[in-house]
Specification:
Blueprint: H1 2-10, H2 12-36, H3 42-45, H4 53-69, H5 74-91, H6 93-113, H7 130-146
Helix pairs in contact: 2-4, 2-7, 4-5, 4-7, 5-6
């Protein structure tokens, strides 16, 4: 097990991706503290919000692979397609799921206030706006360029 961690610690692309994720999640915490005037550790591990750590992570991966191996390689093509799918999912399907959760929570609130049923609320912040995805992607690419 220690051999595996030792090898990962030497992997520049893996380190770049981890740093991009950490920067994006750290920025998410900073935005939360500024917006709500309080600290919540869940912001560091939760999904959704500004910026998209999904976008930062896969963009850093694609940029790091492009820098190390070039854009004409099969590994870059695979990474680029993977990145495209994750970016579309982050602001498409996952965002729609979050909107559905928001509507279901309104229905649950209505039922609760009429004293008929009490249910657990659903997590609403699942996906990202296009701006959150774009900012996350820019963070990922910048981290990859810094770590090249």
């Amino acid at each position: 097990m220690s051999y595996l961690f030792g090898q990962l610690a030497k992997n520049q692309i893996f380190i770049t991706v981890l740093v991009a994720w950490f920067v994006a999640q750290g920025a998410k915490v900073a935005v939360g503290v500024i917006r709500e005037k309080r600290f919540n550790f869940r912001w560091f591990v939760d999904t959704g919000g500004m910026p998209s750590s999904h976008a930062a992570t896969v963009s850093a991966l694609a940029a790091a692979v492009a820098i190390k191996f070039g854009v004409s390689t099969p590994i870059f093509a695979i990474t680029l397609v993977f990145t495209w799918i994750i970016l579309m999912d982050a602001q498409g399907f996952r965002r729609s799921t979050g909107k559905q959760a928001e509507i279901l929570n309104m229905i649950l609130d209505d039922i609760y206030w009429k004293k008929k049923v009490k249910e657990e609320r659903l997590k609403e912040l699942l996906g990202h706006t296009p701006v959150e995805v774009l900012v996350g992607a820019v963070i990922g690419i910048l981290v990859a360029l810094i770590f090249k």
